[in-house]
């Protein structure tokens, strides 16, 4: 009898607390937008952070809440945009395929070294020490960008520069962030002309540091002034859409080949 009272009391208290928890759950429960899970399932689950969010789940929540655009995921591409647009019941926006491209042609043969770097084999560490090439703007060749790529879309070539596999590249931007000299940029795939240099040294100095450097001779800017200017001793393309295809041969008269087409077979 002495045991029965406390057992009944504890059972009653447990029932009261349970009912209280059920009431609190129903009262305080946060409604989950059913579209979030569907959007998340449509994303590539790379969780690379290229969209600016912590992962695909966080992006899905932001898209459903109207805080992020349907094309915020650079990895998913057109197919993902169409799926998410269908879930939201809106018209799919146009997407432009982008890829990472290197603004440097400072190969081992073209860019002489001023010293032997014996430190930690990363571009970041070498950059902090000034690098081992005469050119202080060029690629350091220690593959930080290659290691940063989560899609196996980059590799180091025998001449010491990273090469992008444009078929595999998802434009996630990880390689762009990894380069301490800002030599990688995301460009529309259809964009077929590039300045292969970032040196701001004066012509004679730049040419001594790298045979392929821009020497600010002005041939390209004179050939197409509406789209190319000289800024800080460097050719800069201000508007790719204004480059007249017929002027490209004149632009490519650059004596160091510091500007030109990526694919010669594309004449237009």
Write a compact overview of the structure shown.
The chain has 268 residues and is of the alpha+beta class. Helices cover 32% and strands 11% of the residues.
Radius of gyration: 28 Å
Q: Percent of residues in beta strands?
A: 5-15%
The number of domains is 3
Number of strands: 8
Spell out the blueprint of helices and strands:
Layout: H1 4-28, H2 34-42, H3 56-64, H4 77-88, E1 98-102, H5 123-128, H6 144-148, E2 154-156, E3 162-164, H7 174-178, E4 184-188, E5 193-195, H8 203-209, H9 219-223, E6 228-231, E7 234-237, H10 248-251, E8 259-261
Antiparallel strand pairs: 1-4, 2-3, 5-8, 6-7
Structure description:
This protein is of the alpha+beta class and 268 residues long. The protein folds into three domains: 35-88, Electron transport complex subunit B, putative Fe-S cluster (3-methyladenine DNA Glycosylase II, Chain A, domain 3); 97-191, Alpha-Beta Plaits; 192-263, 2-Layer Sandwich (Alpha-Beta Plaits), CATH 3.30.70. 32% of the residues lie in helices and 11% in strands. It is built from ten helices and eight strands. Helix 2 (34-42) packs across helix 3. The protein is elongated. The mean pLDDT is 90.
